[in-house]
Amino acid sequence: MPRIAYVNGAYVQHRDAATHVEDRGYQFADAVYEVIAIAGRRLLDEEPHLDRLGHSLSELGIGWPLVRPALRYALREVARANRVSNGLVYLQVSRGVAKRDYVPPAGLQPVLVITAKSTPAPSEAPGPGVAVISAPDLRWKRVDIKSTGLLGAAINKQKARAAGAWECWQLDERGFVTEGTSSNAWILTHEGELITRPTGHDILAGITRATVARVARQLQLKVVERPFTIAEAQGAREAFMTRATSIVTPVVRVDGKQVGAGAAGDVVARLRAEYLRAVGDSEPFW
Ligand code: PDD
């Protein structure tokens, strides 16, 4: 089946989907994006993802490319056209197309691109877990804005893969973990506290992070928002990461040291199952 993408109002063949060479997203990373997971023909946590898109757009002074109900409709149309029951929808909004100049002209029309792809349905079981390495955080100082300026993250993710790990936990100048390159970082202490860095300009306010924190509190778990170090993670009872497309994933090795039993822990497994229950009640869209 041919893949379909949305580019500024048109549903086109994926292989022909293109924006202009002077799109500011391409020249300046002057663009923001969201990735929303789809499970059982439902968009998971759609509204908070659109709220975060609103934050990214307003921090950069880019207008909404469509009113919100029309954007919701377009996301569903792209998912439907690609027959995605489980997978993700990707949307990107750039400031627009203009002659290359650091200062954009007023009144640009934002460029909206949407794609969707299928992936295996998320399992309730957390799987065997992944290894992470650490490296200095190379990114800019406003990563709360989900911009397409992902070079620092891409470099660190490649470092992780070269070291046989899945993710890189990035470190601030004091040696505390900010977050993964495309996920938020968590540990569970031996005292039973869930630790994750507070939101601010130095991490992306993960939507999965917020839902998992809410679910954890409902389970009477204590969530403490504070930075933690690699040494603390290595000595933790459990460690994990959160992101839309992989939900809650155990981290079983940090910089070569085994965490806990070196396998998915009880709390990770519980949070993953409860997360799926918490987000699974929206209307299927096809
Ligand atoms: N990344 N931190 C960063 C830097 C991220 O890029 C992401 C998501 C997250 C997790 O956020 P959420 O729970 O809202 O998915 C945290 C997306 C999936 C990506 O770039 O592919």
Layout of strands and helices, then pairs:
Layout: E1 4-7, E2 10-13, H1 24-28, E3 31-39, E4 42-43, H2 46-60, H3 68-81, E5 87-94, E6 111-118, E7 130-136, H4 151-162, E8 167-171, E9 177-180, E10 184-188, E11 193-196, H5 207-218, E12 222-225, H6 230-234, E13 238-243, E14 247-254, E15 257-258, H7 266-279
Parallel strand pairs: 7-8, 7-14, 11-12
Antiparallel strand pairs: 1-2, 1-6, 3-4, 3-5, 5-6, 8-9, 10-11, 10-13, 13-14, 14-15
Helix pairs in contact: 5-7
N-(5'-phosphopyridoxyl)-D-alanine binds at residues 35, 179, 182-184, 204, 206-209, 242-245.
Q: How would you sum up this structure, described in words?
A:
- The structure is a single chain.
- The protein has helices spanning 24-28, 46-60, 68-81, 151-162, 207-218, 230-234, 266-279, and strands spanning 4-7, 10-13, 31-39, 42-43, 87-94, 111-118, 130-136, 167-171, 177-180, 184-188, 193-196, 222-225, 238-243, 247-254, 257-258.
- It is an alpha+beta fold and 286 residues long.
- The chain folds into two domains: 4-118, D-amino Acid Aminotransferase, Chain A, domain 1; 130-279, D-amino Acid Aminotransferase, Chain A, domain 2 (Alpha-Beta Barrel).
- Strands 7, 8, 9, 10, 11, 12, 13, 14 and 15 form a nine-stranded mixed sheet that branches. The protein has a six-stranded antiparallel sheet with strand order 2-1-6-5-3-4.
- The mean pLDDT is 97.
- N-(5'-phosphopyridoxyl)-D-alanine binds at residues 35, 179, 182-184, 204, 206-209, 242-245.
